[in-house]
Amino acid sequence: MNPIPAFGLGTFRLQGQVVIDSVRNGLEAGYRAIDTAQIYGNEAEVGEALAASGVARKELFLTTKIWVDNYSREKLIPSLKDSLKKLRTDEVDLTLIHWPAPNNGVSLEEFMSALAEAKSQGLTKQIGVSNFNIELTKQAIAVVGKENIATNQIELSPYLQNRKLVAFLAQEGIHVTSYMTLAYGKVLGDPVIRAIAERRHATPAQVALAWALRLGYSVIPSSTKRENLASNLLAQSLQLADEDMTDIAALERNGREVSPEGLAAQWD
After folding, report:
1. Is CB count within 10 Å lower at the N or C end of the chain?
2. Rounded to a whole number, what is the distance in angstroms from the first to the last CA of the chain?
3. Residue-range domain boundaries for the chain
4. CATH number of the structural domain 9-249
5. Active-site entry in 31, 40, 71, 159
6. For this structure, is 40 an active site residue?
7. pLDDT of 65-91, one tens digit each?
């Protein structure tokens, strides 16, 4: 089973020609992992950009996420098949439950079982969750087994370090994927991050991404600018010192950017 790539391209909020250009530019810059979701409304455009790129499917790692409206046993697999059509592929590499949505009328057991069934049908190589707290991750493990949860994709940034949840996932051997690693760009102006960037001859974005990579997380930053896409990739070769990591650890402020009512559960 392919491990989840450490560096991927996010497509949240990118629509139409913008997402086509971003994916095309990303692939040209060297990205091979692409993260999308049903609710982003851009799977067809992502599929178009991938098809036009000429990059072989086996070189790509594609992730999508099932939207809350499709969690029931009757809807989950048909919705994923629809996503595959849009993405122009027979299977994705990873499919996640997007939000726990505890009160939407479908039990966790039902949607995790349906997701496992999608995997056994060969529609997705791996399955996982997104935005799950410790308790819900435990419940998901009880349904499908921790070895079948490839990742928990969660909001993580220098301002939201989520240490309790991260420690639990590490203990269970579940990989962490960090989204919103730049906190909507807020961390880019942080004086501590900027000082490290100057010291290391790097950009603030590279520093924040390198911090997450050093902690063992996968990252999926998005950008519409070719130069930023290329620049972000260089975070992979940026070596932060222990003192840099200590400085960034002190920036924790529980600065959560995303917590939609009705979709999120109680955070740890």
Report:
1. N
2. 30
3. 9-249
4. 3.20.20.100
5. 40
6. yes
7. 999 999 999 999 999 999 999 999 999
